[in-house]
Amino acid sequence: MNKFLNSKYVRPSKKSTAIPREKGKAYDIILECAACWSSLETVRKKMRRSVMYAYEDQWGDMIKDPETGFMITENELIRKQGKQPLKNNMISPILKNVDGQFRNNITETICSVRDQEEAKIGEMMSIALEYVQELNETVELDSDSLRMLLLGGFSAQRIEYGWNPNKRMNDVWVFGVNPSRMFFNTDMEDVRGWDLNLIGEIYDMRIENIIAAFARSKEDEDWIHSIYGRENTSIFTEVDGMQGNQNKDMTFFVPSRSDMCRVIFAWKLETRPAIYCHDYLKGTFYYADKNKMPFIDAENKRRIQKAKENGVLPEDTLLIEYEYANELYWYYRYMTPAGDILQEGRSPYWHEQHNYALMIYPMIQGHIFNFIEDFIDQQRAINRTMMLIDFMRSSSAKGVLIVDESICESMTKEDLVDEYVRYNGVIFVKLREGKNIDNVIKQYNGGASLAGDFELLNLQLKLINDIAGVNSAMQGKEAPSGTAASLYAQQVQQSSLNLKGLFESFKSFRKRRDYKLMQTIQQYYTSARHIDISGKFYSKESRYYNPEKVQNAEIDIQLTDGTNTPVFQALENEFLEKLYQQGAIDIKIMLENCSYPFASKILESVKQNEQAMQQSQQMQGVDPNMIQQVTGASNNPQMMQQLQNDKNASPVDGIVQKAA
Q: What is d(CA 54, CA 244) in angstroms, rounded to the nearest whole number?
């Protein structure tokens, strides 16, 4: 766990604004978190089943053994009957197709300011945000979050600022959250998550990592050891490693492994008595402690006295009005399973919220569904049909030889069998009157397959794609013969309509994530820095991040279609080539803005040649302005074409004139 609260930047106040706890305990909070985690067990059970059908054993459902009465898996029961469980996984290709559709239509986050005169600030923030996204590889994180959203019905990411030991630097980080370790209040009904009041996750950490994260003195280290014990020297061994068993058998209070210690991290929306203030002079609204009322009254008296000195009536003076209210605020806690508080405090962020971005889709009247459970039954029907066909085929006759014993007078049965299976074998038969060869020897193949079983299988394969919304046009399959080109183009264009709701909802989740990411950058990027992203062209002013300009700016974000798709880059390159051919831009401008992989090398070579030409011509006493004109002519295709045309040549070109 990369603890997001760095003591260098966040120091919880000595006076806690939460309900006082005896000796740093939070029994009621830990029990509330455990209740929320337990109430999500049905959701996690559905998620585990969806994962099983998407990537694992599709015959893993538990059923009752008719012989013993014990619960066994369907796989074990089929093998017990001497059969091989067959499956045709149609769910995994659907997930791969949805993932490919998402990666092929990546959107970019653009920051914009409300004051258009400060457009450079928005561009500056866009560069910083894109830098953090590339640093965190958010494309991979978003792809994994989308996959977990399809499998479990909800997904989340965590935004932090602090030291990352993998990158060896302090910066803003985005972490994916394992849904099996996450909990939140289960009385939510708002799809936007505005009625969220508790959220958190459970960590399994080594004792040395807990001490490094939370101990600030030798006393703190001894206190942590008194809770978790001394150094845990147990060696954890697992036969089936990396099989996700820790997520299947997870509990709230006990760590998944014997060499780990459990830490519970929770955010809770709490209340406190306060006064709600409205400062008419500054035009601000804010909450303040009740003990601040004497200071506010003194400030109002000072303003009234100053207004009198300036000839302003007291009733016209802009004062601070306040009233009693209860303030809602987010409070975080790191706790042990026993309720001991390792660290706590109010939200240290400027947005004054928790640092999670939560996505639930679809949620209908507080009920969480997942994408996969819609067609699990259809997948089971496909597997059962395949097993039925396999059972009938395995029990039917396949090449059975039927022989009339009366023909075995001249040959023994063993010789007849050997001669029948031998290449170019010869069997001597003496047919009796009224019989033909089919009456005495015949090979028989059973037709135990029911009529229409393969048609049923094909129908089920088609239905599962229709239910998932991934049709043949989206998969890029070849259209049937006779399909009009216009019709197929329309099918391709409208093939993603069934998944549009999913992608738009996930886009909203990414926008909320990026907004918190942007606010965290505004808060913790306190020093000027140069940010240059390769392959991107920005103005020089925007490349230098100036925190004094950005921190006080009101910035909005929007997600637009990405410019890094092959289609967009091809159109961009084609447009730049037309401008260059028409002489509207020179070669340097085209190379700076195009997306050719070799553009940067050519641009560097052009600049080096210009510098070399200028140096050589200056040494020979040639006017630099003439060099600039010649360089401009070389970058103008029309002028170069005129210079190379023989019709424009002079009769004396290339002739040495006689000396005067």
A: 14
pTM higher than 0.85 for the full model?
no
pLDDT in tens, 98-148: 998 898 888 888 888 766 667 788 888 888 999 999 999 999 999 999 999
- The tens digit of pLDDT for each residue in 144-201 reads 999 999 999 999 999 999 888 888 889 999 999 999 999 999 999 999 999 999 999 9
In one letter, which amino acid is 233?
T
Whether a cis peptide bond, with omega within 30° of 0, leads into 337 is: no
Measured distance CA(466)–CA(434) in Å, rounded: 59
Q: What is the pLDDT of residues 471-521, one digit of tens each?
A: 666 666 666 666 676 666 666 666 677 788 899 999 999 999 999 999 999
Query: What are the strands, taking DSSP E only, across 190-260?
Result: 198-205
H or E, element range at 561: strand 555-561
Cα 461 from Cα 178, distance rounded (Å): 32
Residue 363 backbone dihedrals phi, psi, to 5 degrees: -125, 115
Q: Is the CB of residue 542 less than 8 Å from the CB of residue 123? A: yes
What residue ranges in 280-405 does DSSP mark as E strands? 284-288, 320-335, 341-346, 356-360, 363-364, 367-368, 400-403
Q: What tokens were used for 18?
A: 């939460």
The domain ranges of the chain are 23-85+138-267+330-373, 273-327, 375-477+495-499, 566-644
As given in the structure block, the two tokens for residue 464 are: 């599962």
